[in-house]
Write a structure and sequence with these properties.
Length: about 325
């Protein structure tokens, strides 16, 4: 279920929060220009490196052993155009759509995603986590595919005063050659801070999306300022060009390169073009009044400091031994 940016949004808001999560809600929209970039073409090499620690959540039955090379998986190939009935002019329409959510490392075997992406051990068992699903991928290295061993912590809750949407999971083995992402440990992102998000919009190969900012209250929130102020202890708004599949993506402070939060919610991805009987990206003006993307604050995710501190301590010990 996805929100429509219309007058009915005000009436649907609370209903969305209570029901839509179970449907792996769409996160998303285009504000102003489309700011999605291919990972390998993104000009900032630091973010290209950070992208290595972001994974896509894929149904296990979509992967199958490649007959010609036992070190690779083949996968069910369906283009975004076919999957979403996209119009001819849509960017990336010819790329395969595979992941349904995104996630990121905070320790070698610990991954964080949105709570509505993985609800119970049953979900943990039937999904895989795939790294390096980028433009041009035709086969996936088995070494880049990880299983979910167990859910450490998860919360999915929405009320007038609170919003929680996160999951912390353990992978089946430590991830090699990919550094856990640094994240904010205290304080809050400021209004106007520039943002970057990395993930799988509409399940297509990973994109780095920039030109987002932390925004003030939107047109819905301004009519209920008191409850919004309480609820915003847990999230902030951002005008990021994100879609279904970006749920669970890390949202970075562009300046510090640290994770500010988890992309969890937003407006409708696509709208129907009645002239050509196809779907096109929902494009809005780049106004904070229309901003629907919500980012769950990473400081509200429990236990991850403990996991990362353990990792950092082990790294320090290795460095001392090497001296």
């Amino acid at each position: 279920m996805k929100l429509k940016i219309s007058v009915t949004l005000i009436g649907l808001g609370l209903c969305f929060l209570s029901n839509a999560y179970a449907q792996l809600n769409g996160t998303k929209i285009i504000y102003g220009n489309d700011d999605r970039h291919e990972v390998d073409e993104y000009p900032n090499k630091e973010f290209r490196k950070l992208a290595k620690s972001v994974a896509g959540m894929v149904k296990a039955n979509k992967l199958r052993a490649d007959i010609g090379d036992t070190k690779f998986y083949n996968f069910t190939k369906q283009t975004a155009e076919d999957k979403f009935e996209l119009c001819e002019e849509e960017p990336f329409k010819d790329q395969y759509s595979l992941p349904i959510c995104s996630g990121f490392l905070v320790a070698p075997d610990v991954l964080v995603t949105a709570g509505h992406c993985i609800e119970e051990q049953f979900d943990c068992d039937k999904y895989k986590w795939v790294f390096d699903f980028k433009e041009g991928t035709e086969k996936i290295k088995k070494d880049d595919v990880y299983s979910c061993k167990k859910i450490f912590e998860r919360d999915l809750y929405a009320s007038k005063w609170k919003l929680k949407d996160y999951a912390v999971i353990q992978l089946d083995r430590p991830v090699k050659d990919r550094a856990p992402l640094k994240f904010r440990r205290k304080g809050k992102a400021k209004i106007g801070d520039k943002l970057v998000v990395i993930g799988h919009p509409s399940g297509i190969p990973m994109k780095i999306t920039d030109n987002g900012k932390v925004q003030r209250m939107n047109k819905e929130e301004i009519f209920k300022p008191i409850s919004t102020l309480f609820k915003k202890r847990f999230y902030f708004n951002a005008n990021l060009d994100t879609y279904s599949g970006n749920s669970g993506s890390p949202v970075f402070n562009r300046k510090t390169k640290t994770v500010e939060g988890i992309l969890v919610q937003g407006g409708e991805d696509y709208v129907r073009n009645i002239d050509f009987f196809c779907n096109e990206s929902n494009r809005l003006s780049d106004s904070r009044w229309l901003t629907e993307e919500k980012v769950f604050r990473i400081t509200k995710v429990p236990y991850i400091k403990k996991f990362q501190d353990k990792y950092l301590k082990s790294q320090e010990m290795l460095e001392k031994k090497a001296e």
